[in-house]
Design a protein that fits this description.
Layout: H1 3-28, H2 33-46, H3 50-68, H4 72-78, H5 83-103, H6 108-123, H7 135-164
Helix pairs in contact: 2-3, 3-5, 5-6, 5-7, 6-7
């Protein structure tokens, strides 16, 4: 082979290497808008800023929808958006809507909260043996779904009780049970002595 052919191949290999390094760096710097907005919402929630948390949860859910509808090649490069984060965002949004409904005496928000719980369950119905996940992840997803189901059941029971009382709102001073994040408190039927379900 001639010396020029070797130089051309060397330059081509070097250019390819530079492109691969640049591409790898670009991909490594990618941040999911869904995860970023969700994390910021949790910080706002911890700080007691429900309004900001609600806006950030909406931003996280919008980013989830955008990322989920991205072309296949973007999913191949960046991965799919997290359905777990989307379900948790709906879960926390439901809790904030219920809190807002009580504080502002707006019972219409309760229906929106129910819709958020239902959407959380649609995205993560909970399956202790989910395909394509590790056993620990499957158990975590199942616990989050059980927490959502529990909160939805409690909400329906509360509404039935209020309808039985002539649709009267709760008495002054009645406080609803504080909402717990999935996994932060054992759910019904959980044996905390060894962490296994009964």
């Amino acid at each position: 082979m001639s010396l020029n052919m070797h130089r051309i191949r060397l330059v081509a290999v070097l250019l390819l290497g530079v492109l691969l390094i640049w591409g790898g760096h670009f991909i490594s710097q990618y941040r999911s808008g869904q995860a970023d907005a969700y994390n910021q919402a949790m910080i706002a929630l911890e700080a007691g800023d429900g309004k900001a948390a609600l806006e950030l949860l909406d931003a996280s859910l919008a980013a989830y929808d955008d990322e989920a509808s991205a072309p296949w090649w973007k999913h191949a490069i960046y991965g799919r958006p997290s359905s777990e984060i989307a379900a948790l965002a709906h879960f926390h949004k439901a809790g904030l809507l219920l809190e807002k409904a009580q504080q502002e005496k707006r019972p219409g928000l309760v229906g929106l909260a129910v819709d958020e719980y239902k959407e959380a369950l649609r995205i993560n119905p909970g399956a202790p043996f989910a395909e394509g996940t590790s056993a620990a992840t499957a158990v975590q997803l199942d616990r989050e779904a059980l927490d959502t189901k529990h909160n939805l059941d409690m909400l329906f029971q509360q509404q039935k009780g209020q309808q039985g009382d002539g649709n009267q709102p709760g008495k002054p001073g009645d406080e609803p049970a504080p909402q717990q994040a999935p996994g932060s408190k054992p759910g019904p039927g959980t044996n905390t002595s060894n962490g296994s379900d009964l």
